[in-house]
Amino acid sequence: MKTVRIGAGQGFYGDTIYGALHMAKYGEVQYISFDTLAELTLAILQKDRQKNPEGGYTKDITLVMETLLPYVKEKGIKLITNAGGINPEGAREEVFRVAKRLNMTGIRVGIATGDNIYPHLGEWEDRGLDLSHMTTKEPFDKIRDRVLFASAYLGAKPIAEALRQGADIVITGRTTDTAQFLAPLIYEFDWNEDDWDRIAHGILLGHLMECSGQASGGNFSGD
Hints:
- By secondary structure, the chain is an alpha/beta fold.
- It contains 10 helices and 5 strands.
- The longest helix has 15 residues, at 61-75.
């Protein structure tokens, strides 16, 4: 029976890299997936990009890649991360910079984009879409200058496609929390999009894994 071993590398921006390193060394994993984003994180990353247009991705992606790229090369472990945040293209360039410093060539990095819908908000409002504040009911033109970002959650499909095209590393912006874990299953087992039972199983697994630190006792502080 075919099996796929997926490790959970991070559960939030700034999470320790040691768990992922241990898995890469000893876990016999095929994939390590990272869920680094929350809405607050995206706001932080957007403010970073306002200060530096080349920013907008999680700054610890540098450490993650410095630590794990040797195992990508040596063991063929694939990395999937939403650390691209507001700027997946910038994150990809940072991965290439790290690979160059490590004298590594041939690393294939795929990105999934399309989650950033901020540039379309004005157009959609003009076409009649109600973008008023959910709580205060203020119209969009009154709150526009307070809106930092707008994202539509991507699913597992573009990640699975990047894997099909041979990516060693896949970087995304905002995705569903389960997408980084569901995508390898879709790719490895060739699941159809309408195979609802298997997709549901993968989503359930993804939810357990993206917060696996908590699911395995991380919130317990008893004696």
